[in-house]
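Retry 2 of 3 after timeout on previous attempt. Resubmitting structure tokens to design endpoint.
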């Protein structure tokens, strides 16, 4: 018969797996809109994933459309990308970044990837003429 001690690694593994795979449901009032106002109200941003869907476990490109609150396209901006799963305490598995200005407020984001199902957040930190601000998108996979 197995001793309790020999079962410990199995129990520990099960606890770890539960922590990442079977966590509590996300908050009910999350806004999953693909167009959102920035936290400070300076900008309005829209995400357009390639193919209009967000697959699990695949690298993909997004277009981030950025305008001021007044609706003027923002082309010259420094944009950083961050994100993760708030309920799992981990970040994105890749380091996505804006690689190109496409004009008319559109910015190419390469290296997006979500390696598991659940609630993700993606945050764009924007520095441009209108000010520094950030915009957060909720993504459900
Ligand atoms: Cu996770």
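Retry 2 succeeded. Sequence:
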């Amino acid at each position: 018969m197995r001793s309790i001690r020999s079962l410990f690694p199995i129990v520990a593994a099960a606890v770890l797996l539960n922590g990442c795979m079977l966590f509590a449901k996300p908050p009910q009032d999350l806004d999953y809109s693909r167009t959102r106002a920035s936290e400070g109200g300076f900008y309005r941003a829209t995400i357009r994933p390639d193919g209009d869907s967000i697959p699990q476990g695949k690298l993909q490109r997004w277009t981030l459309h950025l305008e001021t609150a007044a609706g003027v396209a923002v082309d010259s901006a420094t944009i950083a990308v961050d994100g993760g799963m708030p309920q799992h305490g981990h970040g994105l598995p890749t380091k996505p970044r804006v690689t190109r200005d496409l004009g008319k407020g559109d910015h190419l984001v390469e290296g997006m990837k979500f390696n598991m199902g659940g609630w993700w957040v993606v945050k764009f930190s924007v520095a441009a003429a209108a000010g520094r601000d950030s915009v957060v998108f909720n993504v459900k996979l």
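Attempt log closed. Residues 20, 85, 88, 90, 116, 118 surround copper (II) ion (CB under 6 Å).
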